[in-house]
Design a protein that fits this description.
This protein has helices at residues 13-24, 38-50, 61-67, 75-87, 116-127, 129-136, 140-148, 151-161, 174-183, 185-209, 214-227, 232-244, 250-263, 270-282, and strands at residues 4-6, 59-60, 94-95, 104-105, 110-111, 284-287, 290-293. It has 307 residues and is mostly helical. The chain has three domains: 4-73, Muramoyl-pentapeptide Carboxypeptidase, domain 1 (Orthogonal Bundle), CATH 1.10.101; 94-188, no CATH class; 198-297.
Length: 307
């Protein structure tokens, strides 16, 4: 059976690419929205039938090659799609200072507090200064000053453009400007460079934890994105639990890791951390009220290279 890459329930850039090709070929109605629902499934089913690719409404490897072409989505691409969905972010979405992160923007929720928003904005300005000025117009100098400023001034800036009292939304024109900035392929490429740095960290973490499958690597990537790393107390617990059950398989090890990471996270976010990590550890679950079947996102227990 050919390897499954996408099916109903998946969301994100890979789905949007499939939809775009279906629309271009006249096989799907509407604008690509990145959501693999019933309409996309029907269009894929018709495409597969027209190309002699067998019955089914899923995108497997032969279907991807016939519809989208090379290259195939990498494990990084597939893990990113899941974590981005967990984060509720796209390349252009920005949120205000609701959680103490100052501003949160981009495909995996880069934050101003930890310097990532500054890095991406300044690198975009270095490579494409005309693009930043075109998007932010008269506010460009204010933005550049803010991302270069000390943290106290960055916090004041973030609060000034956040919509009180909840501070989740960002005021206009900032909200639309950041969204537009994130739509440019040049900016998405810079964001993906930061993703690649996180993914390299995820590979190292997978080696440290002896996780050798796609689901294991995707779990490590989600840990790096949401939690930064596995704290020493969590590592000690993982070591104790695995020593107590030396015949465990990797799925059991992933569950041990998921619980250890969740239990060492901040109490306010602990349930969210646990649901995300267990969904990846076991291959299915509910996150933010939505059901995820991770196989439909192209990730399973297949071995993966950590080189």
């Amino acid at each position: 059976m050919a390897r499954l890459l996408l099916n109903v329930g998946a969301r994100g850039e890979l789905v949007r690419r499939v939809q775009l090709r279906l629309v271009q070929g006249g096989g799907a109605p509407g604008k690509p929205d990145g959501d693999y629902g019933g309409g996309t499934a029907g269009a894929v089913r018709a495409f597969r039938r027209s190309k002699g690719l067998g019955a089914g409404d899923d995108v497997d490897v032969p279907t991807w090659r016939a519809l989208v072409g090379p290259p195939l989505p990498t494990v990084r691409d597939r893990a990113l799609q899941v974590t981005a969905a967990f984060e509720g972010h796209g390349f252009g979405l920005i949120e205000g200072n609701w959680d103490g992160a100052f501003l949160t923007w981009g495909v995996i929720g880069f934050t101003l507090k930890h310097g990532e928003v500054s890095t991406i904005v300044l690198e975009t300005n270095r490579r494409h200064p005309e693009l930043v000025r075109d998007v932010f117009g008269a506010h460009t100098d204010e933005l550049l000053a803010a991302v270069r400023a000390p943290s106290t001034r960055q916090l004041a800036f973030a609060n000034s453009i956040s919509v009180a009292p909840k501070n989740v939304r960002v005021k206009e024109p900032w909200r639309s400007a950041f969204r537009r900035l994130g739509e440019f392929p040049e900016v998405q490429a810079i964001q993906l460079e930061r993703v690649d740095a996180r993914f390299a960290g995820a590979k190292q973490l997978a080696r440290d934890l002896n996780l050798k499958t796609e689901l294991g690597l995707a779990l490590c990537f989600d840990i790096v994105v949401q939690n930064g790393t596995v704290k020493q107390a969590a590592r000690a617990r993982i070591a104790r639990d695995t020593a107590a059950h030396p015949t465990h398989n990797e799925r059991e090890l992933r569950v041990i890791v998921a619980h250890a990471v969740a239990d060492q996270s901040a109490p306010a976010f602990r349930d969210d951390v646990r649901s995300r990590k267990l969904t990846l550890a076991t291959g299915a679950g509910r996150v933010h009220g939505e059901t995820y079947v991770i196989r439909n996102w192209g990730l399973d227990d297949s071995p993966v290279s950590l080189a």
